[in-house]
Amino acid sequence: MSENALSDLVFIIRLGIVTILLWICSRAYDFWIKHVSRAAERNAFLRAIYAEVDFNTFDMTRFLDSTVSIELLAPHLERADYIPHITDARHTEIYRSRITELDALSGRYGRHENLVGSLVQFYGELEKVTQQIEGLSKPSFVQISPKGKAGTINRIYKTCAVCEGLGKEILSKMEKSYPRLGLEPIAESHQVERNIRPMNHTEAADRLKKLSSDLNRVNNRTHSGSPRS
Description:
By secondary structure, the chain is mostly helical. It has helices at residues 3-66, 70-77, 93-97, 113-135, 139-143, 146-177, 190-195, 201-224.
């Protein structure tokens, strides 16, 4: 083989090696970009579902703090036309719209698998609260005995307490499982904590609007796939 031919062969081999290395590097870069994007989207979902659970849990706590005991309600329940007014202001948009992404809560190798079960149970109990509250407006409610009415209202109290307990458990688990996200519940704000009981209806409505707006903003960012710090 002539020297020129050998030189050309070496050049071709080198060019092939460089081409292969460039292809490998480009594929590795694409894989890294996709990995970073998926991680950012996953973190956004975790923050969003945490915010939604936090809002619902806070709402349950506020409701339970303001409930009137069955004993005090007893005289009113004697009236056939008495229907207690309870507002259901829960959020389920993120859970319902992204339910197929719940496996993100499991973490690597399914280390936090119990979080998924707790979350499903939490939203199931929230749905139960809705059904129980709607039962107060049914014609059958005014026809039952005062004792039956008391039992119906008491069931709502108990279900809300279950929701509150599950919500706090989920929030605590998420904070421990994903410390890098800096998750913090609403109740950590001392100002909010102090205002739970003295809050009037106008202030409560304004706070709900703000919390709802914040949650919708988180949800919109989540759907856009933009990374969040």
